[in-house]
Design goal:
By secondary structure, the protein is of the alpha+beta class. It has two domains: 242 residues, D-Maltodextrin-Binding Protein, domain 2, CATH 3.40.190.10; 191 residues, D-Maltodextrin-Binding Protein, domain 2 (3-Layer(aba) Sandwich). 42% of the residues lie in helices and 15% in strands. It contains 21 helices and 15 strands. Strands 3, 4, 7, 13, 14 and 15 form a six-stranded mixed β-sheet that branches. It has a four-stranded mixed β-sheet with strand order 9-11-8-12. α3 links the parallel β1 and β2. The radius of gyration is 24 Å and the shape is globular.
Length: 443
């Protein structure tokens, strides 16, 4: 980590300027009174790297160092506690900053930050799924990943960086990623399918509905059927899913994707409502379903029951990679932290290649770091490597609140296309967009 610390030294200027500017603006707005800005913990103490007369030390002569007396609190979910305690001990050994780990479920951390952040009862560093950051940013609860931005953008998978960004500003330090891939039964299919043509050819020979025997299944909800949108050039919202005024669900690409979806009814002769998670999980466990589109959360359900592998989703008839929806978990720094430098350093330390590989080894979390994803530990794992490869061709789920107006109409559209072979795809999608716009406008 000494090499890392040397890299940090060259970034001292940026952080000092950011913090110094904050102090100046705060002093002006308070007519010389105490600052209420959360960046420096609501105090008038100058940022690290300054001296009493206001002159800034040359950052090239010193390392980016934690604030004197810094100590951190980090929130972590139960399944990550053992790993995080080891990481915290390593950080303290490296930087001399003690770290207290408090257990809090991942889905609850954003809500707790909103209530406890302003009163300075929240953790300095927390983990959130990317679709929660919009609300946190809007409320002023997160510090941007400014000091380590360049390094983060260079070292992380692009989709992870996009997911950790809001309104053009990078906030997160990517930690782990998840998406779905194609589970396939290696006893039934010695060679993994690469294209939808491969899938169709196999299913036509293998299907036997009378015996509940099918080639492939997936759930008919927006999350799992997004490949029939994004893989064909369609989209949900414009501007990287940040512009709700631009809805692309009736665009030419989406129409093409839905039309292709409609053609697949011949290899999965079931109504959409009958293809549930429980149904396809049981059939895959019993060896009656050859291919199952699912995520890493289902690996445990199959590991001791099926001889399976995981590969990226089949490529489109046009030869393009299939785009899945993905989720990203990142570390974020609480804007009310009294130790914003130490907190930044911890978030960067925790998201390093080495620590992401350690997290994978201990918990199975799939790395967001490019080099970690290329490490033999990942590449030689026949399951994890499939998910990581698919993630590189994924689109992060929209993080803006307007996505909540999309899910139900989109699900209804998928079901309509699937269950009614005579439906006019373009007309149906036009109506879907009209419904979504009306709901967005009503809120």
């Amino acid at each position: 980590m000494n090499q890392q610390k040397k890299k940090n030294a060259s970034l001292q200027t940026m952080l000092m300027l950011c913090l110094s500017a904050t102090l100046v603006l705060s002093a002006c707005s308070n007519n010389g009174g105490g600052s209420n800005n959360p960046v420096n913990g609501g105090t008038n103490t100058p940022p690290a790297g300054t001296v009493n007369n206001g002159e800034t030390n040359d950052p090239e002569d010193e390392e980016l160092a934690p604030e004197e007396g810094a100590e951190l609190v980090v929130w972590e979910s139960k399944e990550q506690l053992e790993y995080m305690r080891i990481l915290a001990a390593d950080f303290e050994a490296e930087y001399g900053v003690p770290v207290t780990i408090e257990e809090l479920a991942g889905g609850e951390q954003g809500g707790r930050l909103a209530t406890d952040g302003p009163s300075k009862l929240a953790a300095d560093v927390l983990t959130m799924p990317h679709d929660q950051i919009g609300q946190a940013v809007t409320a002023g609860l997160l510090l941007p990943n400014d000091v380590f931005e360049e390094e983060t953008r260079a070292s992380m998978v692009e989709a992870a960086v996009t997911a950790s960004t809001y309104d053009g500003v990078l906030y997160g330090y990517p930690k782990s990623v998840e998406t779905y891939g194609l589970f396939y039964n290696q006893d039934l299919m010695p060679e993994a399918p690469e294209t939808w043509d491969d899938v169709i050819a196999f299913a036509k020979d293998y299907n036997n509905p009378g015996q509940n025997q099918y080639g492939i299944m997936w759930e008919f909800v927006g999350y799992y059927t997004y490949p029939f949108i994004g893989s064909f050039g369609g989209y949900i919202f414009g501007n990287d899913n940040m512009d709700p005024s631009d809805i692309g669900l009736n665009s030419e690409g989406t129409v093409e994707g839905f039309t292709f979806l409609q053609s697949l009814r011949e290899i999965l002769p079931m109504n959409a409502g009958d293809v549930t998670y429980d149904v396809k999980t049981q059939l895959f466990q019993e060896g009656k379903l050859a291919m199952n589109i699912d995520g890493p959360w289902s690996v445990a359900a199959f590991k001791d029951k099926v001889n399976f592998g995981v590969v990226p989703l089949p490529s489109t008839p046009n030869g393009d990679p299939s785009q899945s929806f993905s989720g990203v978990k990142s570390y974020y720094v609480n804007s009310y932290s009294e130790y914003p430098i130490a907190a930044r350093l911890f978030a960067q330390f925790a998201s390093s290649k080495e620590n992401q590989l350690k997290n994978f080894e201990m918990t199975g979390a799939i790395p967001a770091n490019i080099e970690a994803g290329e490490d033999p530990a990942i590449q030689d794992d026949p399951i994890t490597s499939g998910f990581f490869q698919q993630f590189t061709n994924s689109t992060p789920m929209p993080s803006i609140s307007q996505i909540n107006s999309v899910w139900d109409p989109l699900k209804a559209a998928f079901i309509s296309v699937w269950d009614d072979p005579n439906v006019d795809v373009k007309q149906m999608l036009d109506q879907t967009v009209t419904t979504i716009k009306a709901d967005i406008d009503s809120k």
